Amino acid sequence: MSRMHELRLMARVARLYYLDGLKQSEIAERASISQATVSRLIKQSRAEGIVQISVVSPQRTYLELEDALRERFALGEVVVAHCEEDREPQVLQAIGEAAAHHLETTLAAGEVIGVSSWSQTILRTVDSLAKRASARKVVQTLGGMGNPAVQEHATHLTTRLATLLGAEPVLLPAPGVAGSRAARDVLLGDPFVRASMDVFAEITVALVGIGAVEPSEMLAKSGNVFTERELAGLRERGAVGDLSLRFLDADGRAVVAPLDERVIGITLHELRRVPRVVALAGGDRKVAAIRAALASGLVGVLVTDRFTAAKLLADEASLSSV
Fold this sequence. Notes:
The chain is α/β, with parallel strands linked by helices. It contains 14 helices and nine strands. Strand 3 (137-140), helix 7 and strand 4 form a beta-alpha-beta unit. Helix 5 packs across helix 6. The model has no long low-confidence stretch (mean pLDDT 89).
């Protein structure tokens, strides 16, 4: 009989707390019990199943997909954006807007932000960002010089983000891909290039795009690309995608190739030391590359779209059944 009375009291306290909105001190006074007892009964009411809390996902949000991706890839956070169509322009815009909101709500004062130069997704993010956050520096992490017709995008991305955040822009005055290792060594000897790259060690948040082996339209037009023969060599080594032109295989391991010696930008080793790496990517052609980046352990936060999220999980399910 005492058990029944205990359960009745739990339900009574739970109703006052959860439905009537009373404070624990008010419940204690009304029920003539101690506040410690009220606290204990509230906790027990959930354990007993008397109180069952459910969270209803609002329309156009995908909490279940986010939870599944977070658990599968051991990510700190996942943002899945709503997108009406599984087409690249719509996917890029949706991810850019979602990433902008994530930055606005998570950036702390004094952050040093690293940004990859040739990511269309990051460019959409910057263009969607409102002046609701601040930072200390915005650092370009991949050389931005190239075809003058598109070089403006790389400069715009870094300087515009810095302006929005009230931060100091740190540009990397070099191409993303040098013509040879010797040319790269000469460029690295430039004091302005070296000074910019020294700031990589200060980065607290890195915004990175995830690329497929085949370069994006923006990257291809920039001139910061490898030849088809070089790309074929990367595929033979198992490369499926890249982070800032540092290539990864399907298991997330670095693909070691002579091409690495021509890239002027942040290395995977330097990226691993950044406290928070936020990857922005979506689209059918990037699914394998995104999974490789997540498998590498380098990414802490993923911002993607609902179609890509579903494909990542579907691919994982098919792999586990083999």
